[in-house]
Amino acid sequence: MVPALEKIIAESDRIAFFGGAGVSTESGIPDFRSVDGLYHQKYDYPPETILSHTFWEENPEEFYRFYRDKLIVKGAKPNAAHLRLAKLEREGRLKAIVTQNIDGLHQAAGSKTVYELHGSTLRNYCVKCGAFYDVDFIANSTGVPRCPKCGGIVKPDVVLYEEGLDEEVLSGAVSAIRKADTLIIGGTSLVVYPAAGLIRYFRGRHLVVINMQPTGADAQADLCIAKPIGQVLSEDVLLED
């Protein structure tokens, strides 16, 4: 199956990649919807409740306790999937990555055109004065993190439930998917909307799905690969196939 993917990649010069949590699980970042992920845990509310705008406003102490514990992952490194995608971009074949992940690993691998639909844990801003803070500021704070300059709450630049996606990021992502001749969907079951709805803008030739579980796009795909994405995109593995 994997040689079929390589053939499609070789024939393409405008690839877009649409990815989700499964891209980062091989870097040791748990998918918070998985059985072994955040549900296996010590909080009084489900993750979707805690990671909502209302909860952030009404229970900030508990929000930040959960956020530090579950969403800030120390020492995670890009895996074979991140590295291969960055290489395809350098080669001029891959034009954009559209990701639902908030870990910044695509950029750490060297990818330049990355549309982060749900924001990033690496960026944090004071809601009062707009001052920027890095991930360590939140990680090393206690209780509700406050801006040393003005005392405002420092909020992660992450799209919480009930919040809208950034319009600029959204339009860039739509444009990249619309212009692609090949769309590779990887590490996502396509259940989170509105993000998952973006694939309907694809008009190109080849649709590829790389995901361990079935997705809503399988029926339209030219190729479905039910293997870990790092393994599929790793060039060492490809040579063995």
Automatic annotation (TrEMBL):
Binds 1 zinc ion per subunit. Zn(2+) binds at residues 126, 129, 147, 150. It is found in: Cytoplasm. One of its GO terms (molecular function) is zinc ion binding. It comes from the Bacteria. NCBIfam families: PRK00481.1-1 (NF001752), PRK00481.1-3 (NF001753). This is NAD-dependent protein deacetylase. It comes from Faecalibacterium duncaniae (strain DSM 17677 / JCM 31915 / A2-165) (Faecalibacterium prausnitzii). The gene is cobB.
